[in-house]
Amino acid sequence: MMRAESNGTMQGAASRRTLAQGDYEAFQRFLQEACGIMLGAGKEYLVSSRLGGLMRKYDVATVGDLLSHLRTGSNPLLRTSIIDAMTTNETFWFRDPAHFRLLIGRILPELTTRPGQRLRIWSAACSSGQEPYNIGMAVNEFQSENPGLPKGVVEILATDISGSVLDEARKGVYCGLAASRGLNLDQRNGCFVTRGECLEVRPEIKRLVSFRELNLTRGYEMLGRFDVIFCRNVLIYFSSVQKQDILQRMARILNPGGYLFLGSTESLSHHCDQFEMVNEFNGIAYRLKTS
Predict the structure, then answer these.
(1) Crossing angle of helices 63-71 and 21-35, rounded to 10°
(2) Mean of pLDDT over the chain
(3) How much is the pLDDT for 116?
(4) What burial class does residue 241 get, using C-beta atoms within 10 Å of its C-beta: 0-12 exposed, 13-18 middle, 19+ buried?
(5) What domains, with CATH codes, occur in the chain?
(6) How far is CA 107 from CA 60, 187, 287, in A?
(7) First CA to last CA across the chain, in angstroms?
(8) pLDDT at site 162
């Protein structure tokens, strides 16, 4: 293990905040090769802040030292820890609520009327699980309002590159700010069980969701076909070429007339022409063209 040389607390703290240009460029290459994420210029502070905990844990002074430690291969968990630190993002309940109004108001009524067909929804880059559970809550609400709909007609797959964050998501237990941010009282009472100061997603909603580790830059045809894909607030981390590749591969595994959700600040412009925009309930989705 490499150790930092320090002449005092202030100097040691300063060294941990410093990210040399060469170290930043090396880390850019590592992250793009490891998980496809492309860091642009001016993200040095983001890298330093995200990796600060790991640098303290391994007692190294610079990101370059951390990469050197990684290259020794002595700790197989370090690579995963670095990716987790850079890809695990804060999220909250019912982000872009108009998307869920559109899902309940148009998409679920449209797709669940197809005879003998199970509806499959994919939450890509699901992070700590709020998005797929929100989809499950929307499905549960829709089914409650449509009691004639056969149970088990909807299944939700949630994927993320981070295995550790998926382990937490599977538990469906949220504490502190994560337990309340974005939820109203009816949602808290109807979709969660109180566990002390925490909230746990109710079993009937958990059962709708399965979790799987996946890198969006790799092939994912083995996931099967889907009717709806949520790929929100993640494409911003990829290059233009990678965005185009991801969107085109998603189009190939969407059923005809299927829907794609992107983040509210994202668009398909210049990346994929296989979709048409749908704008209802103040929400935007992209419907796969059928011809």
Answers:
(1) 50
(2) 85
(3) 66
(4) exposed
(5) 9-87 (1.10.155), 97-288 (3.40.50.150)
(6) 51, 21, 10
(7) 59
(8) 86
Strand partners, 22: none
Q: 84 pLDDT exceeds 50?
A: yes
Structure tokens at 167: 């382990």
CA 186 to chain centre: 25
**Closest alpha carbon to 230 in 68, 46, 50, 107:** 107
What is the share, in percent, of the chain residues with pLDDT greater than 90? 45
Which residues 6+ apart lie within 8 Å of 114 measured at CB? none
Helix, strand, or coil here: 285? strand
Query: Coil, helix or strand for 279?
Result: strand
Report d(CA 118, CA 116) in Å as an integer.
7
Q: How far apart are CA 31 and CA 291, in angstroms?
A: 38
Spatial CB neighbours of 128, under 8 Å, sequence gap ≥ 6: 88, 91, 165, 168, 169, 174, 178
pLDDT category at 275 given cuts 50, 70, 90 is very high
How confident is the model at residue 9, as a pLDDT? Answer: 37
Q: Tokens representing 250?
A: 């998603």
Q: What is the largest CA-CA distance in the chain?
A: 72
Contact 27, 63 (CB under 8 A): yes
- 238's CB contacts (< 8 A; 6+ apart) are 36, 37, 38, 216, 217, 246
* Residues 171, 224 contacting (CB under 8 angstroms): no
| C-alpha Rg value of the chain to the nearest Å | 21
Beta bridge partners of 275: 288
Taking alpha carbons only, the member of 126, 121, 141, 139 closest to residue 187 is 141
Higher-confidence residue: 182 or 200? 200
> Residue 197: pLDDT above 70?
yes
Q: What is the mean pLDDT of residues 267-271?
A: 77
